[in-house]
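Consider the following assembly input.
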Amino acid sequence: MDAPDPSTSSYYVSDDFYAGLVDEFSGWQTPERAISDAALRESCARFLALEARLLDQDRFDDWLALFAPECVYWVPGTRDGDPRREIAIAFDDRRRLEDRIFRLNTGEAWSQRPGSRTTRMVSNIELFSTGDPEIVMARSNFLTVEFRAGATRIWAGWAGHRLRDATTHWRILVKQVNLIDYDQNLRNPSIVL
Amino acid sequence: MTELPSINGAASGPAYDYDRLVFEDRVHRVLYTDPRIFDAEMTRIFGAVWVYLGHESQIPQVNDFVTTRLGRRPIILVRDSDGVLRALYNRCTHRGSTVCRETRGSAKSFQCGYHGWTFLNSGKLNGVPWPDGYADNFSDEKFNLAQVPRVDSYRGFVFGTLNLDAPALVDYLGGVAGPLDEWLDRHPGGKVALCEANRLKFKGNWKLLYDNSADGYHVVFSHRSLLAMENRFEPDSDKGMAFYRSSPDSAPMYVRCFANGHHFKDKRPNVEDRPGALWDIEGPHPGMEHFEASLRQRLGDRADRALDLASSEPVNINVFPNLHILGNHVQVSTPVAVDETDTTWYGTAVVDDDGALEGTVDAINALRMRTQESFPNFGEVDDLANFEQIQVGFLAEEDEWVYMHRGLGIPGRLKVDDEGAITGPPTDEVFMREHMKVWKRLMTAEPRIAITRTV
Ligand code: FES
Ligand SMILES: [Fe+2]
């Protein structure tokens, strides 16, 4: 049997998947797991800059192509919570991420009319190893300046990327976006973070 | 109980003649723009009626508390050491600082950070540093924290009012308790637990949200992108809110208005009355196919009911002025300023104390969390952006009126039952006309407002 297509069905977001996710995103920024390989760090920094640029350029479909087929875009509304028991600001599997982009592309998402213009700064990149040599975790800080409807404002926080095929062809398995104001009432959180 | 002097004066608001601002078919823009009206609302509306403060599941144990607001007043909602639900003013009786800066937790007492006065979680003053420097002995209850004199809970929903003449909570709710009961009773044990929230804010007046809360007219326009998204795989399918698509008034859903400004948009008649029907119209959600397959395997033909619990209940139950039960959400709106409002969409989880769900409650909730994230992410953001555009439009000072006359004057369009509830088609603006009548009545009344410090 062919594997189900995660763009049209969501079989991979299972109990085991959630349990793995919670596990992978707890306690991963440890000195023992820090990666100092300069070439790898440089390659990863270039990838994160590319990701930021594609979003700044509204190239959402190209941004989507950076994700692995079975992926998650996750903006938690708590620290160290479990998405099975809590609402997140966003928890998108592959299909919902495509939904998100589809909706923005309709031109009828009023929260994005006029659309936001963004400039994203990504810095303080640190890499950490995982049990799988093919997979690394990247921590980076972000500062996203958003201009929309006459006003400029800032989104800030840090992102945790779980990345595959580290050496040649980076793909995002999970992007976790941790806003510094994750627990506050947010005005128009309709841009992709 | 301290009865406060008549609110004539600072809180009485501008000397508007409300008869010239609120008509049967329209209201004046200043209702949404004048900070003096907003200030008066904080007493005459939010001080005078039962206001939703929080849910008992947020403070399940003795000594648990959450901070909340009654209008703008900072409040600590606490289950005190004796188990009594209290809404304490989060304001030190010495010189006025808040005494609690956390959003939730468990505490037997609260100590003010400024000079260290300490209050028990009943509100009673428990101690002041170096009391020999005071001539008082502090036995006077005037140094206890102020608290909302009337706090009551309806099936877990905790409300408070400052108005000594307000009816009992259950009478204030009146007819809207019926839909609330039905919403609760679809869950095992007739209850839910609040969980984390999509917290949103908009730069607009709080009434813009209430005016939209039973509005079936805006859906196909405001939520065009969401409707397209929910049905992107099969454009003619009936997922999500597709029942609005053609002519909403010819669908069997309806809006019902109750006394005191509460209303109910009931979309359930659009959906077949059988187990699994709610699940069948859910749009795509993360984990949907996996959890459906596993629930069907575990529960057989009982899986449909379990899947319905993960599905959004097609109702909007609006309790004036700040509580909305929408789908599975408990949505709370909180005024911040005349042109700024917070709206917090608490998720709710299914609780299965009796094992009625045969050990599947965690799977149901894993699915239910994702179904609940959809509308705030892909629908509400557009509503709030539209409300902000209304607030911008209101800057056109000479163009004074906001119309709400859809349906008005069309014979036979509305039905009134024996209890006085008014039922109309889902796009009718009768719900807004009704809550605006209540608004005007409240703004021109003199509520008997009080706080208490008696413990
Ligand atoms: S203001 Fe609270 S102790 Fe002084
Ligand atoms: Fe809406």
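Chain A has one domain: 37-179. Ask yourself how this observation constrains the way the partners meet.
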